[in-house]
Amino acid sequence: MTETTITAEELQASEYFHGHRCPAMPQGLRAGHVAMDWLEVPRARGGGELVAIIETGSHHFSGCFADGVMFATGCTFGKGNLIQNPLGKFALTLYVPKSHQAVRLIPHYERMSQCLTMDFFKLRAQGVPPFDLDPKVTEPLIQDVLTKPWTEIFALQEFEDYPFDPVPDVFEAVQCSLCHELTVKSYAQQFHHQWYCKPCLDGIIHARLAPTV
Ligand SMILES: [Zn+2]
Ligand SMILES: [Zn+2]
User: Left (φ > 0), alpha (ψ -120 to 50) or beta: where does 193 sit?
Assistant: First the structure.
């Protein structure tokens, strides 16, 4: 496999999108490129070519990983081809619906746990934002994640027939009978022959269930 090099332009553009320089975002770039190179697929333009499944959660260290994955693969929140399976892990699974093939990249335990002992993470844990850190603390980690052979960063699992049920895009919408807001049909529900959005229907049902005495 020939790995696509992360150019200075891509790094700069992804840092602009992400908001700051840090090592976790480029680790996501790296994971995204390795996965695409392994599967021999280009970056997603629409929502149907690729699906990225990330296992990071929210409000924990190195969550920035997800932004690098999005930037590299084109699998984004808006296109609906980025799925967060919040397990508190740093794996990326990239799935190709057309061939049903997938790869899962998971950082080596030793490397990730060693990173946690470095000043970068100690200072971050103390509440110092990444953009206020001394570049002497941040830059070696960024260079490391950009230049180390990918096999020293990630382990790779390959799937020939990954279990995944695609959800078709919906192009229909209805008007909620109560709040009158436009609601995508698959998110609306009918009750007594009227369409309702979820909060309005919940409100109606809740009011009916409320004790009357
Ligand atoms: Zn970051
Ligand atoms: Zn409503």
Answer: left
